[in-house]
Amino acid sequence: MPLTSILATLLCGLLLCFPFVAQGADKNSPSVTADEEIDLRLGYIEERLDAGKRHARYWQNGWTGFYSASALAQTVFWLDADNNDDRINYLVGAVKATGGLLDMLLRPLPGRYGAAEIKSLEGPSHVRLGKGEDLLQAAARRAQEKTTWKPHLKVLGVNLIGGAVILAFGDGGDALVSTAMGVAVAEANIWTQPTRPSSDLRDYQSRFQGMQARRGHRWQLLPFPGGAMLRTSF
């Protein structure tokens, strides 16, 4: 047997018998326990969610109120209209406003209550951390929707259909105004959504990416000239 293979075999035996002589953990990785890492992550998420709560609640409550008032007002105008053109115009407006209201109610903005949902959750810290990460990711996905084509295509499609209905059964001028106003309002709704969750998620991933909590000894098989060696981190 080659001398290098014999030496590698002896070294592996020594590592197994005396793990304290193995190479220690990477000095570049923060040395924290599992519980400390969970507390750090959870505290960071709670702080970021609470910091963005005001904008999220203003957006959610403000647009919900706007669509509620618009749907009610245009329904009243529709019932009080004295000619067919106005009735068609107000009816389409009421339907679009009601659709916007339903979207606000059925798809409420994640994070509008800050970290209250996490703090009120009973259970061990790792359960709360899982809930917090889910909430942070959901808020970030919602914030990133505005940069995709789907919500904008939906806005354009709904308003073009509404304009076509008004054009077919009412006045062409009303159809143009209704379509333009509908697109403008819906786009304002999209672009005023909070953007902070996207950067919060990126910061969270960057901050904790290299952190490894201590969970006892970890063994790793590494190549060695003529054989292999074991490395343990502790």
List the helices and strands and how they pair.
Layout: H1 3-17, E1 31-33, H2 34-51, H3 53-80, H4 84-106, H5 116-119, H6 125-144, H7 150-169, H8 172-191, H9 196-208, E2 212-214, E3 218-224, E4 227-233
Parallel strand pairs: 1-2
Antiparallel strand pairs: 3-4
Helix pairs in contact: 2-6, 2-9, 3-4, 4-7, 4-8, 6-9, 7-8
What does this structure look like?
This protein is mainly α and 234 residues long. 69% of the residues lie in helices and 9% in strands. The strands form 2 sheets. It has a two-stranded parallel ribbon with strand order 1-2. A two-stranded antiparallel ribbon has the order 3-4. A hairpin with a 2-residue loop joins strand 3 and strand 4. It starts with a helix and ends with a strand.
Helix content: 55-70%
Mind summarizing the main beta sheet?
A: 2 strands, parallel
Low-pLDDT sequence parts: 14-30, 212-234
Strand order of the largest sheet: 1-2
Q: pLDDT average, as an integer?
A: 83
Oligomer: single chain
Rg over CA atoms, rounded to whole Å, is: 30 Å
Spell the H/E element sequence: HEHHHHHHHHEEE
Categorize the overall geometry.
elongated
- Hey, roughly how much beta strand do the residues contain? 5-15%
Give the tally of β-strands: 4
Helix/strand/pairing category = mainly alpha
In DSSP terms (H or I, runs of 4 or more residues), the helix count works out at 9
State the end-to-end distance.
33 Å
